[in-house]
Amino acid sequence: MRRLSLALAASLALAGCSPPGVPKSQGAVAKIQARGHLNCGGSQGIPGLSRPDEKGVWRGFDSDICRALAAAVLGDANKVQFTPLNAAQRLPAVQTGEIDALSRTSTITFTRDMAIRFVAVTLYDSDALIVRKSLGAKGPADLNGRTVCMQGGGSLVEGTLDEAEQDNKIKLTRVYFDSTITARDTFFAGRCDAYVTDGLAAKSQLATVAKTPDDYQLMYIGRLVEPNGVAIARGDDRWFDVVRWTINLLIWAEQNDITQANIDERVRTGSPEIKRVLGGDPKFGREIGLDPRWAYNVIKQVGNYREVWDRNLGDGTPIKAERRYNRLYTDGGLLFPMPWD
Predict the structure, then answer these.
(1) Which of 161, 225, 323, 324 is most exposed, with the fewest beta carbons within 10 Å of its own?
(2) Is residue 222 a contact partner of residue 108, using CB atoms and an 8 Å limit?
(3) Is-contact 44 85, C-beta < 8 A?
(4) What residues does 151 pair with on adjacent strands?
(5) Predicted pLDDT of residue 155
């Protein structure tokens, strides 16, 4: 019996499961609530996505996704602590429990999803090169022999550069750095002819870091549309549910034109579905193990998807990024909310 018990315990450990008698309260939701704040992974500093401002407050689209999760679980969007992570650090930080959620321009792939659990897509993007106009390059085909500054550890960027070389019959010299910030700064200092990163990040760097943005051009490369999403540790169904449906809520609220400004009115005058989702039906909260007004708290404190985008990446910001794939499907984009039935 002792050998059988040991074997059972070992198999449960390998499977990432809790043995009988261990309460579900040991999951991330309960830990976050007991701790009083959410631990969220961010980038090492990409304006518009995730970066601390001059007062040390993290700003950006990815940072606000973390705030939405905190509002759902804790009722307070400000109860978040951020950890800056490079490409090599991000997956281990999730696996070891250093962070509760990863929200930093990480593309969902098969290999990564086998290591950690990607829950929902928050941004669709594609890779891009920032190139000096002085090179006179009209496209990637004109970059043969040129140097490219890049952060090491990003397999998709490597693949995109491979595609560019194969499609255009060129060879690029890759110069690696351990952080995207170092790679970016080295490029702008004149060390490399080009810098490769995600398209939104490239747009951000041009708008906020380049001293003379008109000296550079942006070239989208690669054939992939990359789904970037929020990731958590594997094996926690309750936390998975909270993250998935919080992201869904942001998109649903945009589709239904529910905003921070009008949410109180919509609670009173909206459709039965709107009233139910925003706290009118206590059962709605119990089913996901949260306060019945969790969805109301998220939109009231953080806003809907469009508000999060506009605040961090839209026309009112220096970045002025086009939503492209990140429009609602009714506007020709790829975003659509799942039903609440």
Answers:
(1) 225
(2) no
(3) yes
(4) 177
(5) 65
Instruction: Extract the tokens encoding 99.
Output: 């962070």
Using 50, 70 and 90 to split pLDDT, how confident is the model at 250? very high
| CATH number assigned to the domain with residue range 25-125+227-324, chosen from the 4 options 3.40.50.20, 3.40.50.2300, 6.10.140.1580, 3.40.190.10 | 3.40.190.10
Neighbours of 138 (CB within 10 A): 9
* Reported confidence tier of residue 181, pLDDT bands at 50, 70, 90: confident
Q: How far is the CA of 269 from the CAs of 89, 245, 300, 303, 305, in angstroms? A: 47, 23, 16, 19, 21
Measured distance CA(5)–CA(22) in Å, rounded:
15
Stated length of the chain: 341
Neighbours of 17 (CB within 10 A): 11
Indicate the pairing of strand 58-59 with strand 51-52: antiparallel
Per DSSP, 44 falls in state S
Nearest C-alpha neighbor of 194 from the set 177, 219, 214, 169:
219
